[in-house]
Amino acid sequence: MGRGMRWSPIGEGKYSSIPSRTARTPPSSPGGDIELSNRHDCEEEDEFDVYSVHTSSQSKVWILAILFVAAVCFAAVSIADRNKQDQSEQQSNVLGAVEFPSDVLFGTALIEDAHTIKSNDFSPPYDIQSDFLNELGNIPPFWEEVEHIANTTGAFSGVTSWGPCYPIQYDWREQVSVQAPFRSNNDEITYLNAPGRHGDKTPQSSFYSGNHDVSINTNLAGLCRPGYIIIGQAKCGTSSLYQYLSGHPRVLPAKQKQLNYFKYLAYMPMEWYLSNFPSAQSFLARGALMTGESSPSYFPYPEVPHLIHERMRAENEPHPKIIAIVRDPISRSMSSYKYNYVDPALKMLSKRPKNPQAHAALENISEEMPDEYYIENHLFTFEELVRAEIKVLQQCLVPDGVAEQMSRSKYGPPNGMYADDFTDAAIPLINADEFCYGESISDAVPLAQWAELIQQNPNKLIVGLDYHLIRSIVGRSLYSLFMDWWYARFSQDDIYVVCTEDLHFEPAETMLNVSLFLGLPRFDFTNVTSEGMYNVGFHQGYDTLTTWDEIEEEAVSENDQDDRDYANIGYDVDLSEELRNELMEFFLPYNEALFKLTGKRCQWE
């Protein structure tokens, strides 16, 4: 519907943007056999009237002439009116239908005095009184136009899209009515087809090309944008946060939790990315307000916030909200050690891959031994890897050190993607993850930070594993360094930070706060969060649920009754008091920088 059009009632529960055509009553005739009265824009006079048909031939000629002229003018007016109506229909057809079925979508009939008429024979998917503006005054991303309609008295302006969904032609009533019985069944959510992951011929684009900018992509009809993006950090509870949020009745899940588009698949067209979210039909049928994804791979890389901003946050336009989740950095580092080093190493020792690098590393290690034997004799301890990494970080992160200089050279002026931010920032932007760990030295010594460890412990395994994740067990817990880049592209109003500990110990309240920030209507998450947690400890898998009873049992078995670490279920990692104190001292300034940056303080001791 074009902007500036009025919502005009055309029947019970139906509203149209087509201007009403008011019929005029012809004036009474003084007498005669024929009366003709109408109003025509083709005449200068308001009206012309024909009275009293005479029997003479001259009169008949004049009458026929007048009738002919009237018929021509009437036809011209009809064509003009039809053209105007067609134009109005085209304007109002932005959402695919002339009629806007307010009774079906809202259960109300919007009329000029804002009076509402409830529909008794249908349960509408949306509540126009509460869905589009919540108690905090927050509007769900992309719903500003509908919120304006819901809170305006008098004339209503047009809607150019349905929330986050791009317009497409629908039979609104059919889409809403047919799928109504399946609103609580995720199996009935539809996703539109898009080019295959590897079948697209689009060349890889630079971060500056804008080739996949949604504003110029013509293949987005019926696709819907995410209202939120959970960016991580990894091993902080992103799976539980995503699954809990998907439990809100106004939120639909993506095809899969982690899409990783803006890090690993950004060469694909925007059409492919958005095809991983529910279609506009599903939004209409289920009364959805938003969908979203959760990709921890986004968190550490400066290119990602820049790319999301470039493709999805046009100036003064709606855009997704960013949700970050952070965890006690010591706890997260222990979890990363187990998840990214111990588990893969034990798997490699068990399966004995045949690639030359792994074979060389394993040839002097006995086969078919229990995990305890390998952990004790052939794996580096948490303390060994952490102390080696801290030594590297302390040297790299000094003021005007390697990380700061290299970050400024790559991202700063004159031509870096964050050039203006380096010029204006009081605190330098630092990419420690890229510039602090150096390059590989040799097959036997993958990174310089491990050279001494490998020399002293030649029978311990690290070759053949994912160095990129093992090298930064501590570094990826320096959250403030990563969040600086996100706040360089998004405002305080765009980002919400969750503390993992709050999600674990007060999950329902924490999720309520997240949902209200997103503009969602109030919802009690108790039943959703009471089921347990996802992807916890040994129970790996983004949708793998571990019940609270199971978590309690494992916490009791692994820890003293008074010192349970629910965040590290399944990670029995030795941590000396001396190392704990050293880590607390090392993390302290970065934690404080995070709290100051985000305006939120996590209860980390």
UniProtKB/TrEMBL annotation:
Residues 1-35 are annotated as: Disordered. 3'-phosphoadenylyl sulfate binds at R327, S335. Residues 228-340 form the Sulfotransferase domain. The active site is at K235. Keywords: Glycoprotein, Membrane, Transferase, Transmembrane, Transmembrane helix. The keyword Calcium does not apply. This is Sulfotransferase domain-containing protein. It comes from Cyclotella atomus.
